[in-house]
Amino acid sequence: MGRSPCCEKAHTNKGAWTKEEDERLIAYINANGEGCWRSLPKAASLLRCGKSCRLRWINYLRPDLKRGNFTDDEDDLIIKLHSHLGNKWSLIAARLPGRTDNEIKNYWNTHIKRKLIAQGIDPMTHRPLNDTQESSKMMSFYNKDEKSRILEFVKRDNSEELLSMWPKSSGSSAAKEWRCPDLNLELCIRPPPSQKWRRGSDGGGAAMKGEAMVGFCFEAGTDDQRFFTWL
DNA sequence: AAAATGCCCAACCGCCGGTCA
DNA sequence: TTGACCGGCGGTTGGGCATTT
């Protein structure tokens, strides 16, 4: 048996909301609070689907919404968060007070995507569009021995040493954007891959089995070997 | 001035996961 | 265990406005 529709479609309005509908919705939520979206339309005398009411409130009528253009800081934050989270608009919106997932999604599709493409960056992977060419160019900063040393430092989880090897020629844009094509460096949120890996090897701060651990995981490695550390 | 085209964004749609009886 | 219900999410659409031809 399939799911029943969320509302009786034949008796609901569609399309743009009128001022009167907005006022009814605001008045009802101010008096009764959010929630029970399914029963809200009837209770508020609105000929709208509950989902439509929820969307209208969350994306447009909520009093804590920030209006106006996105700032450069917000741009940067959205790009950074998207590079880590992908199209998880609700998660991204949770980090931008006063912005909605719908607003950020629209802004991404209409502005940021184009901005990144103009900069030669693939908006989905956040890597150069002509990746192969860029990679070979960037690798000129490191010879074979240096690449081996970097992998060793990653294996030993020695962040200080690893950072000290980062290119120092700050005037070079290529240096700023450096990444090693043989290394896959990415951030993700997930539990540790093994019990051994849970900061337990040195005896300090070990998490017990079954204990919840959530955090940012810095993952690095090659196709053959993977290495992790927590941030 | 009118038509064509492009852009923006509010709103809709379908799906999914959690909850509850 | 199952199915209905509900809230929430991401992808897509289409109407209105702005710009270009």
Estimated structural class? mainly alpha
Helix content: 40-55%
Number of helices: 10
Mean pLDDT: 65
C-alpha Rg (nearest Å): 25 Å
The major β-sheet equals: 3 strands, antiparallel
Protein name: Myb-related protein 308
Subcellular location: Nucleus
Keywords: DNA-binding, Nucleus, Repeat
Domain Myb-like: 9-61, 62-112
Provide structural commentary.
The protein is mainly alpha-helical. The chain is 42% helix and 6% strand. The chain contains 10 helices and 3 strands. A 3-stranded antiparallel beta sheet has the order 1-2-3, covered by helices on one side. A hairpin with a 4-residue loop joins strand 2 (216-221) and strand 3 (226-230). The radius of gyration is 25 Å and the shape is elongated. Residues 1-5 and 132-231 have low confidence and may be disordered. The structure holds a DNA duplex (21 and 21 nucleotides). It comes from Platanthera guangdongensis. It is found in: Nucleus. Residues 9-61, 62-116 form the HTH myb-type domain.
Q: What can be said about this structure in brief?
A:
Pfam families: Myb_DNA-binding. With 231 residues, the protein is mainly α.
Q: What's the helix and strand layout?
A:
Elements (H helix, E strand, L loop, with lengths): L18 H14 L7 H4 L6 H12 L10 H14 L3 H6 L6 H18 L12 H8 L5 H12 L3 H6 L8 H4 L9 E4 L26 E6 L4 E5 L1
Antiparallel strand pairs: 1-2, 2-3
The structure holds a DNA duplex (21 and 21 nucleotides).
Subcellular location: Nucleus
Protein name: Myb-related protein 308
Keywords: DNA-binding, Nucleus, Repeat
